Write a sequence for this structure.
């Protein structure tokens, strides 16, 4: 968040833009509440939920997932993160969890994607001696999404609390049979 005088000016511009728009589209109720809290009339806010392509992001059973086999993770319990690990995300919580669970050899924390925090997470993983607990793989193609999003047994989401009303981890809607932390 931009602080100081510049932040005040930018927020005023944002709020004026929202109020003067013919309509504001929110992708969830929390986002709609955020927009309404800026003084926007209810009749100028429309909630249009995210959708997914059920064919492109259909869950694959673990033992039938060729990507799991390719990565040598057939017998692992995978806690996975997929997507951008950017400025609005935090990774301290998962580092703490990995540190507590480091002796669980079948447990793997898998990070699929990129973002400004990926390199910082790699460095912290190495500095804390957690290299055996983590695996990092690059962003996967759209055609590989059903495989990469089906890799984890549990997905972990990382979002700073001050951004919960603005960002929605929409890709997880289509991978419903997986637990999300």
């Amino acid at each position: 968040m931009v602080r100081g005088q510049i932040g005040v000016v930018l927020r005023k511009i944002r709020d004026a833009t929202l109020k003067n728009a013919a309509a504001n589209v929110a992708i969830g109720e929390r986002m709609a509440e955020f927009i309404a809290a800026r003084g926007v009339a209810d009749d100028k806010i429309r909630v249009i939920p995210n959708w997914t392509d059920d064919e492109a992001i259909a869950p694959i059973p673990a033992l039938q997932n060729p990507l799991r086999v390719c990565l040598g993770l057939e017998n692992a319990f995978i806690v996975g993160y997929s997507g951008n690990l950017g400025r609005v995300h935090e990774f301290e919580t998962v580092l703490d969890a990995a540190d507590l669970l480091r002796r669980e050899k079948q447990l793997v924390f898998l990070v699929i994607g990129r973002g400004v925090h990926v390199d910082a997470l790699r460095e912290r993983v190495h500095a804390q001696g957690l290299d055996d607990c983590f695996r990092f793989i690059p962003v996967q193609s759209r055609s590989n999404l059903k495989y990469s999003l089906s890799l984890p047994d549990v997905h972990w989401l990382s979002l700073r609390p001050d951004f919960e009303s603005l960002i929605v981890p929409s890709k997880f809607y289509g991978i419903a049979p997986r637990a999300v932390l």
